[in-house]
Amino acid sequence: MSFDIAMPLTLFVVTLVSVFLNQKTEGKLKATLEDREFRVRDVALFVGMMAVMIALIVFVRQMSLVLMILFLFSYSLLLFTFGYVFSKNRWYVGAIPPAVFILLYVFFRDSEFWAVYLVNVYGLVFAVLITLYLAGLFSWKTTAVFAVLLTVLDIFLVLVTGTMVEAAKATSSLNLPVLVSLPTLPAVVTAKGSIFMRLGLGDFFFAGLLAIQTFKKFGRNFAVVTVIAMTVSFSIFEAALLTLLSDYGFSTAFPGTLMIICGWAPLILWKKLRHSHTETK
Question: Average of pLDDT values for 53-78?
Answer without folding.
Answer: 82
